[in-house]
Please model this.
Amino acid sequence: MELLIATAVGALTAAGIYMVLRLRTFPVIIGTSLLSYAVNVFLFASGRLALNAPPVLRDGVETYTDPLPQALVLTAIVISFGMTAVVVIIALGSWLSSDDDLVDVPAVSDGDAAEPALPREQRQEAAQ
Amino acid sequence: MSHWIVSPIVLPAMLAAILVLMVRRHLLPQRVLSMAGCVALLGIAIGQFWQAAGGDVTIYQLGHWPAPFGIVLVADRLSTLMVLVTTLLAPLVLLYAIGSGWDTRGRHFHPLFQFQLMGIIGAFLTGDLFNLFVFFEVLLIASYGLMIHAGGAERLRAGTQYVLFNLLGSTLFLFALGTIYAQTGTLNMADLALRVAELDAGANAGIRVAAVLLLMVFAIKAALLPLHFWLPASYALAPAPVAALFAIMTKVGAYGIIRVYTLVFPPELAITQGLFDTWLMPAALLTLALGMIGVLGAVRIERLVAFAVIGSMGLLLASVAVFTPDGIAAALYYAIHSTFATAALFLLVDVIQSRRGETAGRLVRARPFEGAPLVAGMFFVAAIAMTGLPPLSGFVGKLLILDAAFADPLVWWVWAVVLSASLVAVVGFARAGSIVFWKAHQQGPEPEETDPTSAPPVEDETAQNGSDEPAVPRPVLPMVAVGGLVAMLVALTIGAGPVNRALAATAEQLFSPAPYLEEVLATEGKVIKDDAHGDEDHAGDEHADEGEH
Model:
């Protein structure tokens, strides 16, 4: 059980870090999702692994599992879910408003970098 | 138990909901309500600061559950001070956003602004590490919306990067929290302080990993080298009022370091010896050097200010890294100063960008723009403050930090780096100022008119006009907001004595945490009227609890 959980956390984290280091937004978002799965499993294991044990105090039960990490994981899942949705939308907006889906911000020049104050339509026209 | 402590979190949360649900299509009520909320918050913050100034630690148990089982909010000197700084900054930034019409260039500016305030204030007030994570996420998700406010390809790209970097930071935060929980079985800061102190110094691998992971999380927020990469693009490309509000966000990271590494992992703790006390100082000094070199090398004025933020965070953390009451007090003074100085500079940069037309923030010669003398004067004052030249508060702060650094073995490194970085910063700001304001006059007026499309289009007709046409009188509100921030800096300089005494008391309180621990852990929660369990435990508390209602 411990080996399985540890391997899962390790593999998810390794895969997540690899994906996060990619150049384009889609693999990077997949990478952050994998990392959030890894951290959820990790948080779950932080209260020690206890099989078939109740999390609530009850008469006649000797072993319990820690209920707090389960609450923490629930919070973390909700938050990471919401954050992933936000980053997908922002990345989509970034892809639609420029030609590529690279993560990098283009190098700053003192030349004709587009005006940040211009609305998107005008900037798209300028780009075409 | 009074609900006074939680009110600065509840107020913006409710207000944001009202703004987004009831008046989303009406600009004027949004502006009025948002501003009224900020002023009310300021009132609450002043009240709480006053209450905590005597040295009392007041707690609020959410749902009346006692610590460490429930979440507590703790109002001590440090947290109320940070809330006060936030609420002093917020109305001025909001005034600028309204005056310059930034809030009309995209949707939901005001609700997001309120949610951002809620997250920042909550992060300052909470006494629970997991709750700190949640408030970090609240302030981050609001900042994502604010960061891409008004859109634009460049800003969306920078926003993507900002969000991804912070997602990784949040993941790291959760890993740190999981490790801490696995080692100690608690996430309440006061309870942690006791349990970490009891841990066996021999088997310390887990808690050391957790301490370093947590420091990295706060270092990301505070833009400490080598985790600063997200900052220049994000701050430079964020809308100006948002960048000005973000000035307090880097301080949230610094606050986290100060709080956790004086309360939970105090410097004398044997179990974490040789970790942050060895390499926080070099990292901070490198951050300072890098920031000021960035100031010198910037080709756009907004990036210059963003690098100045990194530099100021380096100086602030160098003072924190001394880990003495003097060092923390100096760091707090500098934190207040650099919040206002950064915000003023970001707003001024926006004024310069919009008035220069097509040239915007590029550091090249251009025609002089309308109203330049006033803007130049403000920029001059703010730059003096930022670079730490006398007579303004930056100088006082730097002096305090240099003085406090004598307690550190690296004192001469601190002096050398701080002083040479200051020189570099002065040169950088002088170069920018002279190109933008001074050499403009050598350029002479050109017959060609500025392209009117470069003026920010104002979508709402009722909005105050921020366009570049000379016929329309310029709105005064933006300059009032900037003037207010500069006035804060002046006030901070004039009141340096009393402020410093208050900050010294704050630092004193941080280094003698016994009343904090006592207040958080010994306060009784609600009594559960359940005959099966625990009646004998709570029998004595019942009437004491009744009296509080």
